[in-house]
Write a structure and sequence with these properties.
This protein is α/β, with parallel strands linked by helices. Helices cover 54% and strands 13% of the residues. It has a 7-stranded parallel beta sheet, sandwiched between helices. The longest helix has 28 residues, at 255-282. The chain is globular. The protein binds guanosine-5'-triphosphate and magnesium ion (MG). The site of magnesium ion (MG) has 5 residues, from helix 4 and helix 5.
């Protein structure tokens, strides 16, 4: 049995070190990844993937930790991925996450992993589903993905999850920001956290007004708004109920299948583009590009045709 097969076998048996090792291979874009994915693909596809996004400091890690407790009460095996899509300051943020997840550190049925995706050629779109596949094959029934919502990343993370929770909190100018960032479209469930702070009911009211304006057909999902105090465990039951309801809707409406297919399509696309880019950059070592450039300079060839020719060469 190859090292990879052995590692996959151990991870499927629930060995946390094997799981960690496989996620490291994903993170580092290991040349062994194709073999890893080949060994995993038949064993994945059942986990519920829940994304949790929102501005820095709204309480994502605290909420994640509370949800882990709730799922553990249902005796489910849980995976947690804290994905840092963009920040160059990974160390600090992840340290905070680890502190807030401390209570689950000794639980063998909980896998917690921070992951930076900047080094991965396919970026967030390829690395995250690969890490999800590792956790899924390791028997996690639920996988929670925490990402800080800055600009584009929450839209990307929404594409990676079955259910996306957008977390807001009072005093962060979130109401207006939400509309701007297109958060309305990506949230399946809204959490207004820090409900113990002044202004929480304002955020709820703003959100309600905004979600009412979204056009919906009969049978479309209506995004619930759940008030929580994650640090005190308040509103967590309601949050769990909202997630469960959304999952039922996903299944009944056929949307689950569509979302999962879209996710794999995005992954394939990211990998394909990465491969093409790699082959393209390999061209810089030979004179084919120079030859084409010279022909354009001489007026024999237009740049579009030159581009077509080079694309045909690399694919
Ligand atoms: N008062 C109050 N504080 C909270 C609540 N939830 C979280 N906090 C606190 O808010 C701070 C930030 O919480 P985190 O869970 O680290 O927030 P985060 O969104 O994960 O932050 P980043 O990962 O840095 O973006 C911590 O000090 C928490 O204890 C809440 O409902 N009420
Ligand atoms: Mg956090």
């Amino acid at each position: 049995m190859s090292d990879i097969d052995l590692l996959v076998k151990r991870s499927r048996g629930g060995d946390p070190r094997a799981v960690a090792r496989l996620i490291s291979l994903v993170e580092n874009d290991s040349p062994e990844l194709p073999d890893v994915m080949a060994a995993l693909v038949a064993h994945a596809g059942t986990a519920a993937v829940v994304g949790i996004t929102g501005s820095p400091g709204v309480g994502k890690s605290t909420m994640t930790s509370a949800l882990v407790s709730a799922y553990r009460a249902e005796r489910k095996r849980v995976g947690v991925l804290a994905v840092d899509p963009s920040s160059p300051f990974t160390g600090g943020a992840l340290l905070g996450d680890r502190v807030r997840m401390q209570e689950h550190a000794m639980d063998r049925e909980v896998y917690i992993r921070s992951m930076a995706t900047r080094g991965h050629l396919g970026g967030l779109a390829a690395a995250t589903p690969q890490a999800v596949r590792v956790l899924d094959a390791a028997g996690c029934e639920v996988i929670l993905i925490e990402t800080v919502g800055v600009g584009q990343s929450e839209i990307e993370i929404a594409a990676l999850a079955d259910t996306t929770i957008v977390l807001l909190a009072p005093g962060m100018g979130d109401g207006i920001q939400a509309a701007k960032a297109g958060i309305l479209e990506v949230g399946d469930v809204f959490g207004v956290n820090k409900a113990d702070h002044d202004g929480a009911e304002h955020v709820v009211r703003d959100l309600k007004a905004m979600t009412r304006m979204v056009e919906r057909a009969a049978g479309d999902w209506r995004q619930p708004i759940v008030s929580t105090v994650a640090s005190a465990g308040r509103g967590i039951d309601e949050m769990m109920e909202a997630i469960t309801k959304h999952r039922e809707w996903l299944t009944d409406s056929g949307e689950l299948g569509r979302r999962r297919r879209r996710r794999v399509r995005d992954e394939i696309e990211a990998l394909a583009l990465t491969t093409l880019r790699q082959r393209f950059s390999d061209l810089h070592g030979d004179d084919r590009l120079d030859t084409l450039a010279d022909r354009v300079l001489l007026g024999e060839l237009n740049p579009y045709s030159a581009a077509e020719e080079i694309v045909a060469t690399v694919s």
